[in-house]
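I have been asked to look over a protein record a colleague put together. Alongside the sequence sits a line of tokens, each denoting a local backbone shape. Please read both lines and tell me whether the tokens look consistent with the sequence. I do not need a full report, just your reasoning and any doubts. I have pasted the whole thing underneath without changing anything.
>
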Amino acid sequence: RPNDSQSTSDSPETARLQALTQGLRISEIMYHPKDPNLEFLELTNIGSGSLNLKGVRFTGGIECVLPDMALEPQACVLVVGNREAFAAKHGAEMVIAAEYQGKLSNGGESIRLTVPQPGNLDIQRFKYDDNWFSSTDGDDHSLIVMDLRAPVQEWGKLTQWQPSPSKGGSPGKL
């Protein structure tokens, strides 16, 4: 029987999941590049401590489970559709956490980033729209978040995003 003086809500895993929900954010989305092999999402740690990404998942249009790796405060990591094509275009020095299965919808879709199994808690869940900016809809610009600390409820709004300043996006460049 567990010690009644220690609540399960105080467990190290509960603390890790709470840190993930408060500190991990999607900071860039390349959903419709001219070359579909160059899709990517960028994740950023906005928290003050290191985050263990083990088991964090994307579900929906793309499927991916992140490996056991640390993401330091203010650092970012990439999740890509095609590791080889991405490295050839952007350089092998980019930190790629994982390669996902599926494709991001060119017409916009809901993105769901969740805590590890068996949890079903959203870290982020929002919908991007291809009508927001013409340059992000097939003209090789990505969507870049404007305020990483905005409430997660704001992420599905046009006002939270802007197109990348250059073609190819700005992966790994906060």
